[in-house]
Amino acid sequence: MSTNKSEQLFDKAKNLFPGGVNSPVRAFGSVGGTPRFITKGKGSRVWDADGNEYIDFCASWGPLILGHANEKVENAIIAAVKEGTSFGAPTIQENELADLILSNHSYVERIRFVSSGTEAVMSAIRLARGYTGRNKIIKFEGCYHGHVDSLLVKAGSGLVTFGNSSSAGVPKSFVDETIVIALNDIEAVKDAFVKFKDEIAAIIIEPIPANNGLLLQDGKFLRALREICSDENTLLIFDEVISGFRVGFEGATGLYDIKPDIITLGKIIGGGMPVGAFASSEEIMNSIAPLGPVYQAGTLSGNPVAMAAGKAAVEQLLNPSFYVELERKTKNLVASVLEHIELKEYKVKMFSVGSIYWIAFTDRPSIRSSAEIDPESMNIYRKFYHALLDNGFYIGPSGYEVGFVSAAHTDEEIAEAANIIKKALDVALK
Q: Which CATH number fits domain 71-317: 3.40.640.10, 3.90.78.10, 3.40.50.970, 3.30.70.1120?
């Protein structure tokens, strides 16, 4: 594969942006080599500046559940743009998308749109603190919630202690309001509530952690969090920026049938446009300005182009067979690869839920926390990743990232993709 044009573009980009990128992982730092500059996407495929074609399982990191340039979404965007791109005023499109989501999501009553998943989480945390009158937050090691200051925190030295900043520029005073606990450790959660009685505003968790591997949790753990939060008058926040609309229309909330107090959403509800949202009960959301004392605002919130794209996308997700078909394709991909893994006796596992999957170089039967991921396995992943790329398979450039199947992938492409994965495993593990 020729990468001359991507190399030239990356050299130019290094003189324009920090590290040559506008989001760190795009720099290929963990896998090495040259980032591919993508110029086009259609259906399940993308093309780079050198004309190389790839089957895409990155899907813009998840939101393109319908594939690239979906015709209905594309037409909705074009029609909206012709009427104007931004007004900073209420629009019909906001009402239509909100009504579509709330009418089909039994766990929330009110929603507010923002422009990113990070903004949704930031707003949800502020709402939880404002509603409860408390300041401290519990988060879990291995869950990512965007680049919110108080959540860019990694575990400290104890089981129940304040975390340490994982980024320069985050004041210690922010970090001191965040308690970081290992996933799947309910006893540590209980200890935190003893140690910080009546101080914890919320527990925030990705109910399906998918930003640091696919760390599938036991439903018992999630239900125990719900019970503790109810007992302690603390809010439970499900960060469903990735899992929302990916594992079903009601996301992990519906999959596990657990009602959190606040849900954060993103990615998919914009149909590929920048958007996020947070949603809750009418009572809790009434704390948000202009009704309540918790201030939250955004000039581009509810942008009419993003709302039109989201409506066109979400309408397609409501097809009764949509998620059945998507999960069928994902299971076919996983089953084919696992058959090869077992035949070759490789120490590799492939985990999946809904239309999300993750390949881990391990012999563990399950991985539920970030501590169970072997960092040395990333050396193997680098070889694996480039073998995928060289054979026309595109996915996020990190062994900690998951893959996404879209409705645009045909059965033939799923079979083709499985064969590429098998060949890449043979290269990486020979």
A: 3.40.640.10
Burial class (CB in 10 A: 0-12, 13-18, 19+), 111: buried
Q: Which of the following is catalytic: 139, 267, 311, 329?
A: 267
Count of alpha carbons within 13 Å of 12, Cβ hemisphere only? Answer: 7
**Chain region(s) in the chain for CATH 3.90.1150.10:** 4-69+320-429
- Class for domain 4-69+320-429, per CATH? alpha beta
Cα 249-251-252 angle, rounded to 5 deg: 150
Residue 87 binned pLDDT confidence (cut-offs 50, 70, 90): very high
Outline which parts of the chain fall under CATH 3.40.640.10: 71-317
Answer yes or no: 239 catalytic: yes
Query: pTM here?
Result: 0.95
- How do residues 158-192 score in pLDDT, each as one tens digit? 444 456 788 888 888 888 899 999 999 999 999 99
Query: What's the pLDDT tens digit per position in 209-251?
Result: 999 999 999 999 999 999 999 999 999 999 999 999 999 999 9
Catalytic residue check, 295: no
Residue 144 annotated as catalytic = yes
Q: Spot the catalytic one: 239, 323, 357, 394.
A: 239
**Among residues 144, 323, 385, 400, which one is catalytic?**
144
Residue 375 · residue 351 · CB < 8 Å:
no
